[in-house]
Amino acid sequence: PTVVAPVGGNPGTTVGQQRLNVFAKAGEIWDAILNSPVTIYVDATFDPLPCSPGSGVLGSAGPNAIETDFAGAPQPGTWFAGAEANRITGSDLQPGTSDLIAQFQSDVGTAGCLTTRSWYYGFDGNEGANIELLPVVLHELAHGLGFSTFASASSGALLNGFPDIYSLFMLDTDLGLHWNQMN
Predict the structure, then answer these.
(1) For residue range 30-76, what is the model confidence (pLDDT) as tens digits?
(2) What residue ranges in the chain does DSSP mark as E strands?
(3) Which strands, in side-by-side order, build the sheet including 42-47?
């Protein structure tokens, strides 16, 4: 409810409304790219995340559900983020469940967290020394939409033995192999 002046094309007059407007703008941008016939639902919160005066986690996001071997899957035995599987099938494979879960740093600009910065809620790229929320939201939503792998970062093990569609395109240029081709 903190009252603020509209900024950079964002007409919101409270911090909460400006944040919501940023998410709506990010949704419009992704919708123009994806053109999904199925509504994509996102559970997003602002919470304290790991942070220090000079660096911090700005956000994180991922799919809330993943699917494999669904009707019309372009690659059998392969994981897809739920929103991507929904777009391919043209239907909500898990109705009543949000497609993405996202968290964003609530403590930017407070004591102990990126103390010389603050969130910028405008749409115009005029954040100056602050952190523009829109590209952070776009980036994190990308992870939840399927621009991420479900393979273990520490061992490389595939989730339940299946590759994900993203890892089929990840290439180790030194070896000339895709992630799912390596052991």
Answers:
(1) 999 998 999 999 999 999 999 999 999 999 999 999 999 999 999 99
(2) 42-47, 59-63, 66-67, 80-81, 100-105, 119-120, 131-132, 171-172, 177-178
(3) 42-47, 100-105, 59-63
What's the burial of 155, exposed, middle or buried (CB within 10 Å: 0-12/13-18/19+)? exposed
- Collapsing DSSP states into helix, strand and coil, what is residue 15? helix
**Look-up: residue for tokens 């699917």?**
67
Nearest CA to 135 out of 29, 33, 64 is that of 29
Give dist(CA 17, CA 25) in Å, integer: 12
63, 14, 5, 43 alpha-carbon torsion, rounded to 10°:
0
CB 62 within 8 A of CB 100: yes
Would you tell me how many other CB atoms lie within 10 Å of the CB of residue 47? 12
The tens digit of pLDDT for each residue in 100-138 reads 999 999 999 998 999 999 999 999 999 999 999 999 999
pTM: 0.91
Gap between the Cα atoms of 146 and 148, Å rounded: 5
Distance set, CA 115 to CA 28, 51, 53, 119 (Å): 31, 10, 5, 11
